[in-house]
Design a protein that fits this description.
It is built from seven helices and 15 strands. By secondary structure, it is an alpha+beta fold.
């Protein structure tokens, strides 16, 4: 299967998961995760089961890394990185912006990514080296943007002890930028950078499934994504923006 066919599979499965999640239940079964405000629902788990089943039906030797626990080692060289419901809190409260994020990676990094956000009528996808797309149209990040004119998206950790330090960082930034936005879903924030709906984004304590697909989409749209000190994005920090703004954000956040 070519990389284009892998992308087509990611897109198809992301859309199916989005359709499944649009059938929002009247009652939720809630399972606590890392804290009282970090939880999963039966819909998170159901979406993950659907995604994994669809992928392995066609690619039984692929590996899986997924938020709700699905895990298997790759025998093919391809591993899927899956967030079945990014923005569970939004979904739980009936707010828009939640999404399904699906990426596939090989030994060189993320190969394809798809983010389906049906509540805001948006679908993003990218293939390494082939550009990024929103609802079928090629997209590019805003560049150049200086800090004073930057609209910045961010999110806050579920670790309540770390939130105060994140608040201190925002307090330092808010007087230096145009404004801040909080959508509640990391993958959409990264895709918003990709299409120029915001100029930059940063967030701490993300997992690989939060930024794998959205990060590829952003980089294929011309943005730069890194960790706190400019290396690869990681669980400590993800910073994403066009190259000019990215450089300024890395300096400030450090």
């Amino acid at each position: 299967m070519s990389s284009t066919q892998i992308l087509e599979l990611a897109e198809s499965v992301a859309k199916k998961a989005g359709e499944f999640l649009m059938q929002r239940p009247a009652k939720f079964e809630v399972t606590q995760k890392s804290s009282a405000v970090d939880f999963a629902t039966q819909m998170d788990k159901g979406a993950e089961e659907l995604i994994v089943s669809e992928i392995l039906k066609l690619r039984p030797d692929d590996g899986i890394i997924a938020e709700e626990g699905s895990s298997r080692i790759s025998k093919s060289g391809i591993t899927w990185v899956i967030d079945p419901l990014d923005g569970t809190t939004n979904y739980f409260y009936g707010l828009p912006g939640w999404n399904t994020s699906i990426a596939a990676k090989d030994e060189q990094g993320v190969l394809v990514g798809a983010v389906s956000a049906p509540s805001i009528n948006s679908f993003w996808s990218a293939q390494r080296g082939k550009g990024a797309f929103h609802n079928g149209m090629r997209i590019n990040c805003n560049e150049p943007v200086n800090l004073a004119k930057a609209l910045i998206a961010t999110g806050f950790t579920y670790d309540l002890k770390l939130r105060s330090s994140q608040g201190d960082l925002m307090n330092m930034l808010i007087s230096k930028i145009r404004d801040v936005r909080r959508t509640g879903a990391a993958a959409v924030d990264l895709c918003y950078v990709a299409m120029g709906a915001v100029d930059g984004y940063f967030e701490a304590t993300l997992k690989e499934w939060d930024f794998a697909a959205g990060g590829l989409i952003a980089t294929e749209a011309g943005a730069k994504i890194s960790g706190r000190h400019g290396g690869k994005p990681d669980s400590e920090m993800v910073i994403c923006a066009g190259p000019t703004l990215h450089s300024e954000l890395v300096k400030l956040i450090n």
